TrEMBL record:
Occurrences of domain RACo-like middle region (ranges): 90-250
Name of the protein described by the UniProt record: DUF4445 domain-containing protein
Residue ranges annotated for the RACo linker region domain, each copy included: 7-86
Species of origin: Acetobacterium paludosum
The RACo C-terminal domain, residue ranges: 252-509
Domain of life of the source: Bacteria
């Protein structure tokens, strides 16, 4: 147990000190530091902590528990408690997403997750996408304060829910690790993120170091650490993901993919890490369609077409309310394989009664009036397909650009680490069918789940990983895709399903030939 505690990001130590007496008039602060010096070396008190020593030491009868954290190679005391409180050692891990915020409370003595909750980010009321929120705050301090306050309110809601669930007061957790993209961390700190969007796209900061939770307005004690960012669109959530994936520790070539608000890609191994990021997420999360929605109750999350009949499932099994990202990927893949759309994504209106014309364009009805919760037809239109293919093409091109920059083929990638809710729940075959992921042996794909939250947890329970976090932040070489003169040309080639180069998707090509969808290619291959 003690060995595990030494690895946690914070340490809790119980001290029984001799009180001052005849001839022993050393100060209270120095008395504590002297008792710690042999094990911890240099120890410091903040001014705020110094003010709490008296009358605390005397009221505690010189028996106390200290919480310490190593801050830039110096141990700092961040909390004093009367008596032996070493059995009560908690920390909080947070994934600060632009859409959803997830939080868990962890027993740092055992590493056990005692409770986990998630809610929609209260920032959504200022705009569904990050860019809307950035423009909302631009040059307006009052608006920036509103968004920072809404972020803290989101945290407070989760902390209260965790308290109800576990019975543990958040004030007993003295360390919080927050993982999020660069803009989200700026909003958390109440710092204007406009430089992230404006040339030369350099954020105000990459590192926060340890901060007093109360200074941020959080209803907890102790300190907050935010995972450092690499660049404007490559944030601490990616650093967290890499910490979990472990590319930096392996000989084999690996590819990390996180498609959320942005698309973040990292290619590399223990020798190098090459990364890039770009806009992709809103379309892939279902935000493009009139009936698109986030992954919640009633969202269509899977689609299959059998004998020319469309069948679907929804989250929680309720009547369809709309379609989320995983449902869109399935819908496109199934329509491509069954001839409902061609390789450019254009509808074939003769093949199914579900393909109708509405407002001057074709669309597929995935839920008729009598099937949907709203009693209205749910339609995915030609425009929706075009916007989704644009987003898919961007993600595909980012991966291709990294591979070419390194001078390797996709087949040389031995492991693909898929992160985020979108990557966790979508059908792998469907994603490959439409060209969102490279066509590789399926056993090479590893789902990391919420690697942003998992990375925050990993650091929380292991102080040794702090050096790895710093190394990752410094080691990653970041590519500016926007500076590539041929990026748009490459994107155009990736706008087809799965791609204009069918040979780069051999299993998809084989399936299409099997279904009679590529007779001309079948003839050429003989």
């Amino acid at each position: 147990m003690e060995k595990f505690r030494e690895k946690a990001l914070t340490r809790k130590i119980f001290l029984k000190l001799s009180p001052p007496g005849d001839g022993d008039i050393i100060g209270d602060k120095e008395r504590i530091i002297k008792a710690l010096s042999q094990e911890f070396g240099k120890v410091k008190f903040s001014y705020q902590m110094l003010r709490t020593i008296y009358p605390f030491c005397r009221e505690a009868n010189w028996e106390m528990t200290l919480t310490l954290i190593e801050n830039e190679k110096v141990w700092e005391i961040i909390r004093l408690e009367a008596g032996d409180r070493t059995d009560y050692h908690y920390g909080i891990a947070v994934d600060l997403g632009s859409t959803t915020v997830a939080m868990e409370i962890v027993d740092l003595n055992t590493g056990a997750v005692l409770g986990q909750m998630s809610v929609f980010n209260h920032q959504i009321k200022f705009g569904d996408d990050i860019l809307s929120r950035i423009f909302y705050t631009k040059g307006k301090c009052s608006h920036l304060k509103e968004i920072q306050k809404s972020t803290i309110e989101t945290f407070s809601e989760l902390l209260n829910s965790l308290k109800e669930k576990t019975g543990i007061d958040p004030k007993e957790s003295y360390i919080m690790v927050v993982s999020g993209n660069t803009t989200m961390i700026h909003f958390l700190l109440g710092i204007d993120p406009w430089p992230i969007f404006q040339y030369p796209f350099a954020p105000v900061f990459n590192h926060t170091g340890f901060m007093n939770a109360r200074d941020l307005g959080l209803p907890v004690e102790g300190v907050v650490f935010c995972m450092p960012s690499v660049a404007n669109y490559l944030g601490g959530d990616t650093v967290s993901g890499l910490l979990v994936a472990g590319l930096h520790e392996k000989e084999e070539l690996g590819l990390f993919i996180d498609i959320g608000t942005n698309g973040e890609m990292v290619l590399g191994n223990k020798s190098f890490l090459l990364a890039g990021a770009g806009a992709a997420g809103p379309a892939l999360e279902g935000a493009i369609s009139k009936n698109g929605m986030k992954a919640s109750s009633g969202a269509v999350d899977s689609v299959i077409i059998e004998e020319n009949q469309l069948k679907l499932t929804t989250i929680a099994g309720s009547k369809p309310r709309g379609i989320c990202g995983s449902g869109i990927v399935d819908l496109l893949a199934q329509m491509l394989l069954n001839g409902w759309i061609d390789f450019s994504g254009r509808f074939n209106p003769e093949i199914s009664k579900r393909i109708i014309k509405i407002d001057g364009e074709y669309g597929v009805v995935y839920a008729w009036q009598e099937e949907s919760e709203s009693k209205e037809e749910l339609v995915f239109t030609q425009t929706d397909i075009g916007q989704f293919i644009d987003a898919k093409a961007a993600a595909n091109t980012m991966v291709a650009y990294l591979l070419e920059r390194l001078g390797v083929e996709a087949s040389e990638v031995q492991r693909v680490y898929v992160s985020g809710a979108f990557g966790t729940y979508l059908n792998l075959e469907s994603a490959i069918t439409i060209g969102l992921y490279p066509d590789l042996p399926r056993d090479r794909f590893v789902s990391l789940g919420n690697s942003s939250l998992n990375g925050a947890y990993a650091l929380l329970i292991s102080a040794e990983k702090m050096d790895k976090v710093q190394m990752l932040q410094e080691k990653i070489e970041y590519l500016e895709f926007g500076a590539a003169s041929d990026f748009l040309t490459r994107m155009f080639a990736a706008r087809f399903l799965p791609h204009t180069d069918f040979d780069s998707y051999p299993t998809v090509k084989a399936e299409l030939i099997k279904r009679g969808r590529l007779r001309d290619i079948k003839r050429d291959s003989k």
